């Protein structure tokens, strides 16, 4: 017990003795004690109300009204229309709105054996997919890590490594056994980077994202580069037949089960979406126009929304600070508001702001690592607060917020108070809710553009798959913004099954055209 605590106890005892000498009874003492206690509690409650008002003032810019969401919807729709008119000039328009040359979903008649390469991060996946008809799909896959040097080196070396891993996968699984000598695998290439496609199997890389910066790839046909790497290995008999964005794979995988699935969305580390658009609404379309190509799936690349200031009316000082310190300033503005890669950082920056205002964790910003173990490195280390922390804290329903306290302790905040935990939970709720509502507004635009009596939206990504509150808030907001019937469905194995279905639909369509 500290000397201060002993002093307080001794003073209290002396006061009680003095009151007894004056003839004040125990009952009176009790009444005085209770009165003092209730006065103290009232003061504490009034302090907490003031504290909450200060926090609300900081969080208010993140709390979007339905009117603001509808303005986001209108701006997104305008950007989409403008980008569908042009050739995807990123200096003029926010969005790529790339035609994918996918014209329909599967009808259940597609069959065959396919390989899939899914490249979209620091590792990639190779899959073997066998389609035996509607909802009868078997697959096996393996994940290969990409050495960091290949993410930054010559692009040719990256594609050679992918071809090498394809060979290993085929050999390890005996896929060539009992095959004719001249058997050639059809391969779908799931490539989660902005590309300008000129056919299903021709795609020029617009820009690298997600930490990639391989030289000699931007401005080149990535399908051709992969095919050339495969051809350099004489024992590999593979033909790359389709380039598939991960959103398109998500849509196709869901469409194999729900015939009215017309929208595919990724809500994870990044965010993007695709949807079926009528070709008559795509002035920049230069492909075939006939009875079989009435529609085309458009890869929106909606994460780039806001590049030309159409979201400035909802951007906060925290959003701007995050953007300026990112590796891609003034790019992916919309994505930086809602994706899992950035949610934790938004929360961290708000916490730092509250600390600097002396509302939260008093005195923590003035300590150095050598002054004590309760120094909170996350307060000064960018990216040290994760989306998983946001979700776990947001969902903390324990009476004493023990879950939040454990999480904060695990990242370096020793002995956080109840008020600290309460405020940080409010921050997490607010940031998560804004992300879910913005995602709902964007999805609402696509559902409205599809313009069918009933629309299924296939969604994949960690935010929708694992963050329960995010999913509930997304669903609730979308129901208010879209009056027509719709449903949100978790799309399984989009990057493998869905991409294989793109290749299968392409093969089936060609077979029908050849036989007629």
From TrEMBL:
Q: Which Pfam families match?
A: Hexokinase_1, Hexokinase_2
ATP-binding among keywords: yes
Q: Which pathway features in its UniProt record?
A: Carbohydrate metabolism; hexose metabolism; Carbohydrate degradation; glycolysis; D-glyceraldehyde 3-phosphate and glycerone phosphate from D-glucose: step 1/4
MF term (GO), any: ATP binding
**Which top-rank group of organisms is this from?**
Eukaryota
Q: What is its EC number?
A: 2.7.1.-
Q: Name one GO biological process term.
A: glycolytic process
Span of domain Hexokinase N-terminal: 55-255
Q: Which residues form the Hexokinase C-terminal domain?
A: 262-505
**Which UniProt keywords are present, listed alphabetically?**
ATP-binding, Glycolysis, Kinase, Membrane, Nucleotide-binding, Transferase, Transmembrane, Transmembrane helix
Q: What class of enzyme is it?
A: transferase
Catalysed reaction, written as an equation: D-fructose + ATP = D-fructose 6-phosphate + ADP + H(+); a D-hexose + ATP = a D-hexose 6-phosphate + ADP + H(+); D-glucose + ATP = D-glucose 6-phosphate + ADP + H(+)
* Membrane-traversing stretches: 21-39
Lipid biosynthesis listed as a keyword: no
Q: Name one GO cellular component term.
A: mitochondrion
Family membership, please give it: Belongs to the hexokinase family.
* Protein's UniProt name: Phosphotransferase
What organism is recorded for this protein? Rotaria sordida
């Amino acid at each position: 017990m500290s000397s201060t605590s002993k002093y307080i106890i001794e003073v209290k005892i002396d006061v009680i003795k003095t009151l007894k000498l004056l003839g004040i009874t125990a009952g009176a003492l009790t009444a005085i004690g209770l009165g003092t206690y209730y006065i103290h509690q009232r003061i504490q409650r009034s302090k907490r109300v003031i504290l909450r008002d200060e926090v609300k003032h900081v969080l208010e810019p993140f709390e979007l009204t339905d009117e603001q969401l509808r303005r986001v919807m209108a701006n997104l729709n305008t950007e989409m229309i403008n980008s569908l008119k042009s050739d995807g000039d990123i200096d003029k328009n926010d969005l790529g709105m790339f035609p994918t040359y996918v014209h329909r979903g599967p009808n259940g008649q597609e069959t065959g054996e396919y390989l899939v390469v899914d490249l979209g991060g620091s590792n990639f996946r190779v899959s073997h997919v066998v389609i035996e008809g509607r909802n009868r799909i078997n697959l096996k896959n393996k994940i290969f890590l990409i050495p960091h040097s290949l993410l930054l080196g010559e692009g040719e070396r990256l594609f050679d490594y992918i071809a090498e891993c394809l060979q290993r996968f085929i050999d390890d699984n005996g896929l060539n056994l009992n095959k004719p000598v001249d058997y050639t695998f059809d391969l779908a290439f799931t490539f989660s980077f902005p590309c300008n496609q000129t056919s299903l199997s021709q795609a020029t890389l617009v820009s690298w994202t997600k930490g990639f910066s391989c030289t000699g790839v931007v401005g080149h046909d990535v399908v051709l580069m992969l095919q050339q790497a495969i051809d350099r290995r004489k024992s590999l008999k593979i033909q790359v037949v389709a380039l598939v964005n991960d959103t398109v794979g998500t849509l196709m995988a869901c469409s194999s089960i729900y015939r009215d699935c017309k929208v595919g969305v990724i809500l994870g580390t990044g965010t993007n979406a695709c949807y079926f658009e009528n070709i008559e609404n795509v002035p920049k379309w230069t492909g075939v126009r006939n009875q079989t190509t009435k529609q085309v799936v458009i890869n929106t690349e909606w994460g780039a929304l806001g590049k030309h200031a159409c979201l400035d009316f909802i951007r906060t000082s925290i959003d701007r600070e995050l953007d300026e310190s990112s590796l891609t300033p003034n790019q992916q503005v919309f994505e930086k508001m809602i994706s899992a890669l950035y949610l934790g950082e938004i929360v961290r920056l708000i916490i730092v702001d509250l600390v600097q205002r002396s509302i939260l964790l008093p005195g923590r910003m003035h300590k150095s690592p050598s002054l004590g173990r309760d120094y909170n490195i996350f307060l000064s280390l960018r990216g040290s607060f994760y989306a998983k922390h946001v979700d776990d804290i947001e969902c903390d329903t324990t009476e004493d917020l023990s879950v939040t306290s454990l999480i904060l302790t695990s990242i370096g905040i020793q002995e956080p108070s109840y008020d600290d935990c309460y405020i940080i939970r409010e921050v997490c709720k607010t940031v998560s809710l804004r992300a879910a509502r913005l995602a709902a507004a964007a999805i609402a635009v696509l559902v409205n553009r599809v313009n069918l009596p009933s629309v299924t939206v296939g969604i994949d990504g960690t935010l929708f798959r694992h963050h329960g509150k995010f999913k509930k808030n997304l669903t609730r907001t979308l129901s208010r913004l879209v009056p027509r019937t719709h449903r949100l469905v978790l799309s399984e194995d989009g990057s493998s099954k869905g991409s294989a279905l793109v290749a299968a639909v392409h093969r089936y369509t060609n077979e029908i055209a050849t036989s007629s």
